Amino acid sequence: MEQIRFLDLEIWQWLGVPLAICLALGVALLAGGLLIRALRKVSSRTEIHWDDALLDHLRGPAKFLLFVVIQFLSFRLLFLHPDLQDLVDRLLLITLIVGLGWSAHRLIGFLSGVALSAAERQDPLRSRGTRTRVAVFRRIGGIFIIVFCAALILMQFEVVRKVGVSLLASAGIAGIMIGFAAQKSIASLVAGLQIAVTQPIRLGDVLIIEGEYGTVEEIQLTFVVVKTWDLRRLVIPVSQILNDPFQNWTRNSTELLGTVEVHADYTVPVERIRTDYKEYLKTCELWNGKAAGLQVTGASERTMVLRALMSAGDSARLWDLRCQIREWMIGWLQSEDGGRYLPVLRVDPPTGQ
Fold it and tell me: What is the reported pTM?
């Protein structure tokens, strides 16, 4: 009896294809689950905790890779035509490359998580530096994995390989053209790497840039996002960070000094307000106790300028403390001796009248 064939496959082979896929999927899920469970029992007996996190990250990719490997074996049992078997093997190889790329991406995520966990135990300044490096190098690793896997996949097709060989003959001219066309993009990528290594800014740093006060919220390879005090977002190219000056208020320390200036009449008792100011500052929870002072820093024909100096643990506390001190100084001038120390305009009548 002549066997029935369709698309160069016999009926039993057509039935065997979905059966092989389902069988490979079931075996991969079962064997992968048992393997993960066994490894988890072993890891639970150790004193370290990162091995449990590693199993959680690689559980999905491990089952997927096991599924692809079983597919290689199961399709051999169908005795396909050599040309068809070569096509199936190529497709499975592409799937294997995708699975390996997925595994590498999850591994980078695991290593990033370990680094971030270690950063939480550091002081705030070093923690921001570590988080910045992790964020930048994680993105670089992700891009590298995508490019590498895409290159391996394209190499599986003979047509692409032939085109690649022909392109290599003109690689010199193409390289020059690409270099001129993408010099700004390449410079931005290099600038992003330079920020990750030298760290003129870090995640969470407080900046004064473009005349705006804000916090570094995100650092990409080509741009930086700064969250301003009024919740706007400034998107700044990394090349501008390296080429233009800006203020980093938390580069080495979050502590800052601040001043408040108030105009007062010449009759104000400076020593008394200086003493009262220092006593009041001791009651302020926002003051960190490191700097305090009050001086006369200016004088005009009508008033003199009282400048109060104070310090705080960070810029947010300093802003609130400055507002608090300013309100106190105005209130002191209003309440002392009936407000006689407030600025006044004196008009003397002409003599001899």
Answer: 0.53
